[in-house]
Every structure is written in C-alpha cells, then in structure tokens.
Amino acid sequence: MVAAPICLTFDGFRQPPALPAQYEQTTRNRLMSAVQAIHLKNHPDDSLEELYRACENLCLHYHAEALYDCLKAELTNQVAQVFQALQRDIIVPSAPTTADPGPGLMRLHTAWHSFTTQVRLIRSIFLFLDRTYVLQHPSLLSVWDLALDLFRQQWLDHTALRNAILQKLMVALAAYRDGQSPVDSLVLHSLIHMYIDLAVYPTGFEFTFLEHTRTYYTHESSQHLANLSGSTDAADRVANYLKHVERRFHEEERLALHFLHRDSTKPLMKVLYEALLIDPIQTLIANGLPPLLAGQRLDDLRRFYTLLQRVWQLNPLRTAYGQYVETTGRAIVCATDHDDTMVENLIQLKQAQDRILTQCFANDDHYVETLRNSFEHLINARPNRPAQLIAKFLDSTLRSGNKTMSDDQLEQILNHVLSLFRYLQGKDVFEAFYKRDLSRRLLYNKSASFDAEKSMLAKLKVECGAEFTHKLEGMFKDMEISRDLMADFRPARGGELQGKQRGKRPLAHGYDENPSSADASPHFSVSVLTQSYWPTYPPCDGLILPPEVADYKKQFQKYYLKKHSSRNLTWQNSLDTCVLRVPFTAGKKELSLTCYQALVLLLFQDGQERSYAQIQHETGIQDNDELIRTLQSLSGGRYRILTKNPADREVVIPASDRFSFNDGFTAPLYRLKINAIQFKETTQETETTTEKVVQDRQHQVDAAIVRLMKAHKNRTHTQLMNDLFQSLQFPISAADLKKRIDILIDRDYMERDSEDANLYRYLA
Amino acid sequence: MKVKINQWAGVAVWKWCVEDEEVCGICRGAFDGCCPDCKLPGDDCPLIWGECKHCFHMHCLLKWISTEASQQLCPMDRRPWVTAA
C-alpha cells in the first residue's frame, strides 16, 4: 500500500519583505530637495544625520544607480545655473578690457568658494553612495570629482567668460607687479588654485601667464635700457638696472611661491631670465661693464657676476672682461710718451683686477685664466720695451728702496712687479737689463737694501728656476768674495801702507762707515768680477790714474795673481768710483765721483785753466763721448765744480771750450753726489743691451735647431717649426727661424732632402 | 788747492790664463766657457794644468782620469798625468 505524499507549505515566506511602495521615490525627493536647499544656501528640512541614513537605505536597497543619476542631473542643473549667473554678472560688453578686474574676480571667487563648500557638504551626505556604489563601478566619478567635472565642462563651454576672467587675472597680476593691489591676494590665490583644481592650469592659465610675463618684462627691460649706448650715465643706469633685476627675481620668486603651482616656478624664472638678462645681455655688457670696471664699482660688479651666474651666462661677461683689461692695458703699454709711468700704471691695473677677481668674480677659475691671458697679450703688445721698463722700475725701487718705504711695502711692490714679470715672454730681455742695473747697484753701492735684493732674487728663482738667476747670484757671490779678499789682502801688504791702514773691516764696496775723518789715509778697495756673470763693459786702457791709486792696484794685482796663479786680472777703470775731499773757498766738500770725473777734477789742483785737448791728454780718456759727458756733468748740471768758458751754453764743444776750477762753489750739503750723465740710461746703451739679447737668442735658436735635428735625423719643415716654437722660451717670428735654418744649411749642419724640399736631414 | 782722496773703489775682471782661441782638448769647449756638465763658467768650473803644460776643464779631466781606458795618462800626449803645482 502506497501512502500519499505529504506536502507542507509555509505561508509566511511566499512574499519577501519589501519597502513601502513609495519609499524610494519619496526618499530620493527628500534628498534632492536637501541638495537644492544647500545650493540655495538654506537649511535642509531634515537633519544631516537623517539624510545620510536615507542615502544609506537607498543604497542598501539597490537604488544606488538611480540615486546617482538623479544627483548628477541635479548637480548639472545647479552648475548651469551658477554659470548663467556668472555670465550675466561678469561679462559687461561695454566695459574696456583694462577696467578694474576686482569685482569680476571677486564675483567668480565667491561663486567658486560657495560651490566647493556646498559640494563638500553634499558629498558628506552622499558618503555612503561614494563608498559603495561608486567604488564598485570604476567608470563612475565620485561625488566631488563629478561636481568638479561638471564645473569644468561649463567652464570650458563658456569661452567668453573664461577669456574675460583670464584677462582680468592678467591685469590684476600686472598691477600686483607694479606694486598696486586692486585685488585681494587671497582672491588671486584662490582663483589660480581653481585652475589647478579644475585641471586646466597648464593650458588655461600658465601658458598665457608666461606669455604675459614675457611681454611685461621685455617691455620693462627695453624701457630701462633705451638709449643706453653713448649715454654718459650708462654705468649708473646699468647698475640700477641690475639692482632692479635682482629685486624682480626676488619678487617673482615670492609671487610664484604665493600664487602659482610649484611646477611653475622654473618656467617663470626662465622667462624672467630671458626677458631681463639674456636678451639684453650684449647691451648690458657693452655699455655697462667698461665703466663699472673703470670706476671699480665692486658691489655692482659682484651683482653683475652673480646675476649672470644665475642665468648661466658667464661667458659673454668673461670675454668682455678680458677684452676690457686687454684694451686698457694695451693703451698703457703702447703709450710711448708715458714710458716712465707704464709699470706703475700696469701694477695699478693688475691690483685693481686682482681685487675685482677676488671680491666680485668669486675667484672663478675661468676668469683668472682670462685675466692671465689678457695680461700676457697686453704686456707683450710691444716687444722688449715693457721688459726693459720693468727692470728699470725694479732698479729705481731697489735703489731708493727703504729710504722712503717700509720693508713690508717694498716687499709688496716687488711682489706686484713680479706678477707683471710673470706674463713677459721676453724674459731674457728683462734679465739682460736687470743684470746691467744690478751690476750698477752693486758696484756703485747704490742698493738700498741687501735683504730686498736677496728677496727679489729668491722670487725670480722661484719664478724662473735656478738657471735664470745663476748669473745674478754669481754677481752677489763675487761681491762677497771680493770682501773676503780685501780682509785678507790688508795684512799681506807691506811697509808704509800697512802701517797707515785702519784696522777696520771694509764694507763690500769699499765705502767705509766713517770715511770723513780728516786725517785718515785713503781707503782703497777692489771688486773682482767673474766675467761671465757680469755684463760686458767696454775696456778702457790708458787712463792716467793718481799715483797712489795706481800703486795700490799694482800691489793688489800682485797679491791676487799669487793667490790664483792661473788667472789674469784686467782692470775696469771706467767702473771705479771714489770720494774726494775738495777745499772750496767757502769750505771743504766731499764729492762722490766716477773715475772719469775724479781724473778730470784732480788735474785742476794746480789752479790752471785747461783746454779740452789738454784735459784729454793729461787724463788719458780717449773716448770723446765719455769725456764730453764727464765735462758736462762737472761744469753743467746742478753742481758746477768746474767753470766753463764761454759759459753761455751747457753743451761742451771740444774745439773751443776751456775749463777752470770753480773756487767759489757753494752748496748747502757737505757730502755731494755728482750725478754722472753716463749713468743715465742712454739710447745707445739700451740698443747694445737689446742687441746682445738678440745675439743670445740667435745662439739659442741655432742650438735648439741642431739639437732637434740631431735627435730626429729627419724632420719636415712644419714639424721642426712646431718643435722650435715649443722649446724656445722667447717670442720669435717664423721668418727669423727660417733665416737661421738657412744659415745652418749653409754651414752644413743639415740639408734639404733632394726630392722633398720640405724635409730636412741632419748631417753628422 | 789740494784735493784729498778719501776713498777709491776699483773694479777688476778675472779670466783664466789661456789664449782666447784655445779650447779644452777633451770637450772642445772654450776655456772661457764651462765643461759640458756645468751650466756656467767661473769658480765652479775651474781649469786644471798638467806638468806637461796641457790645460783642461778640471771636470773633464777628472772624468777622463777616472775611466780605466785612460791609464792615468794625459789625453794629449799620453804621458802620465801630473797636476801642475
């Protein structure tokens, strides 16, 4: 038997629980009316808590999609309303573009501000929607983004409004730059950030802003720099302009920090750099730099450098700086009328530039290099003469030396001179003149400070190496040896002379410390020179020396040759110096004289008048030029020891002039130095010294050519020339080198290759 | 009028006692110059005379004597080198 199946039915589950029929509609309406109330700045009817719950309920009951669409429609509607109002309020067709931008901007600012505040509140209400439905659908925008997106669309659609606002912003910012503030900076800040929030900043604002900035500053710079070239106050104007630029940079940086997106700082500064500095850079440098340098306006120059450093434009400034120094220096060097002040002027220029380098140009390596190059060019702009004048300047410094300045000052001057010397190409010219001057200082005891001499020598040694100063050191050594010789010689002398000697140790140059004591016997001394160290002096034989001098020299020679058996001794009488005590009617005077002067003066002890020929005969001075100069120095000039007859002119004429002793000579001082005219630098002497340098150079060139050819055997003309220019220490022209090469070919040191005329072969 | 000489400073130049044209038999350099090893003539590079009257740069000669091939002979006349007093 089959039982019938039992069927159980549960009635209660047949209908799922449901919301009240109108619930979704009414709730949505409640929410939307709240949104509208917020838009109208009214309080919503329900509390925010209830609204939030309502939204939550709708979402939980799968009505989110409809709610989102509804909200979107509502917001679209609201934004449209906002823009209608904006359009109506801001766009005033009749107003000019430059009208006060304040109200318009203010209006937009308020609208934007209330819109964002409202959206924030709305988002809070619809937070549950945001967090669930929107999150689960990646293609949907969150409430906040949705609102912004709607705003952006409207913004983009309203071209006229957009342009009007941009225009007003530009006017406001320009006014801000001009130092006025027609618009609250908060408003500016908020509006610019509106562009950022709407994601339209780069194209909608920044681009126009930069263009506008460029126009603004290009205009400003051209206004500042108009008619600059040739104007007398160019330096001041450029200086002020630079100050202005500095201030502008500062201001714009602050503006960028306050108002702009931080990525805008860089492009903004770039625009600024270009408009204010890079574009007018040539005008600035050409008109501003020379007067600023000439006026040594350190602060302005430092500003110039710092600004250009900031814009990576140091090279144009450096080039112009080098040119300025070179032109200025060249003018000093080539001013042939002002040779006597050339070295001083150059030192001043160098000092000024050194100061500018350290204080304004931050000791920039490139600038140091430029300065060095400029000095190298300018000082060698004239061949030989600067080298000679530097040597001469040193001579006068070391002569007067410590008499007028302290050791430190002297040392400083020497350093300055050295800094010029460093740039000389023809150092051999300098050496020749320096040697000649040094020999005079040593032999005539003119050197003011032995320490200074030594210090200068040490400096030269550091600068050019031991080889350069070897000869100069040799000269000092000769003087020391001579002093030792004199100490040794005294006791060796026999008889009467030895008895009369005072036991004092003589000074290096034979000048005693106290030679004026009345009854002292003559004080003799000799300096023995090593020929190769010293400049060559013309021999002067046949001088008739006073007997006691001649006797002394004879004895010394005997002594010396005994001591150094394999040597010869030649007297250089023309270099002798002496002190004579001469009784004038008004009183005795001590005169420092050269040998020639002394010989002439000694003749007149008999009180006779003499003719030129007589004097020449009795003194044995054969050299007419020398004798004329000597007579001129005694009869003309400051101290007239001899009277010339006729006395109408200074120039000595050998044929007619007669001379006599000037008994009535007076002078305020007891010891007098009769300046010898030949001591002055004569053109002839300069020529001979220069000539000697040229000869030396030829030898060096010959030696260098032979050395190179010997090393390489075969060398093309170009190779040889290049090697020579590298190995030779002084400036020389290719033509001169070629001449020497031809001479060496003639002398069979080398030959031209029979096939290739450009190839030289060494001949052993 | 009687002038009195208070001071007199003379100047003289020394040279080696050789003929101007003569050269060192070893380095063929002038006696006024120096041996090839020295930079500058003068006291630092003296000359030396033998009893045979031959003269050389001292450095040149010493270098020669110190070589074995020299057998202590004067390079000019091959007689034993004796430095003149």
What's this, in brief?
The complex is a heterodimer of chains A (about 775) and B (about 80). With about 775 residues, chain A is mainly α.
Q: Which range best describes the helical content of chain B: under 10%, 10-25%, 25-40%, 40-55%, 55-70% or over 70%? A: 10-25%
Q: What's the rounded overall pLDDT mean of chain B?
A: 85
Q: CATH homologous superfamily of chain B?
A: Zinc/RING finger domain, C3HC4 (zinc finger)
Question: Terminal Cα separation of chain B, in Å?
Answer: 52 Å
What is the annotated CATH architecture of chain B? 2-Layer Sandwich
Structural class of chain B: alpha+beta
State Rg of chain A. Answer: 50 Å
Assign the CATH superfamily of the domain at 23-199 in chain A: Cullin Repeats
Measured between the Cα atoms of the first and last residue of chain A, the distance is 147 Å
**Approximately how much beta-strand content do the residues of chain A carry?**
5-15%
* Largest interface pair: A-B, 64 and 26 residues
Please count the beta strands of chain A (DSSP E, at least 2 residues each).
Answer: 11
SSE order of chain B, as H and E? Answer: EEEH
Kindly report the CATH topology of the domain at 23-199 in chain A: 5 helical Cullin repeat like
- Name of the CATH first level of the domain at 23-199 in chain A: Mainly Alpha
Instruction: Indicate the overall shape of chain A.
Output: elongated
How would you summarize the topology of this molecule?
The complex is a heterodimer of chains A (764) and B (85).
Chain A: H1 23-39, H2 48-60, H3 64-90, H4 102-125, H5 127-136, H6 143-157, H7 159-177, H8 185-197, H9 201-224, H10 234-259, H11 265-278, H12 281-294, H13 298-310, H14 314-334, H15 339-359, H16 365-379, H17 385-400, H18 407-421, H19 427-443, H20 450-464, H21 466-492, H22 495-500, E1 523-530, H23 547-563, E2 567-571, E3 577-584, E4 587-594, H24 595-603, E5 610-611, H25 612-619, H26 624-635, E6 642-645, E7 658-661, E8 671-673, H27 683-712, E9 714-716, H28 717-727, H29 734-746, E10 750-752, E11 759-762
Parallel strand pairs in A: 4-8
Antiparallel strand pairs in A: 3-4, 5-7, 6-7, 9-11, 10-11
Helix pairs in contact in A: 1-2, 1-3, 2-5, 3-4, 3-6, 4-7, 4-8, 8-9, 9-11, 10-11, 10-12, 10-13, 12-14, 14-15, 14-16, 15-17, 15-18, 17-18, 17-19, 18-20, 19-21, 19-27, 20-21, 24-26, 27-28, 27-29
Chain B: E1 4-16, E2 47-49, E3 55-57, H1 58-66
Antiparallel strand pairs in B: 2-3
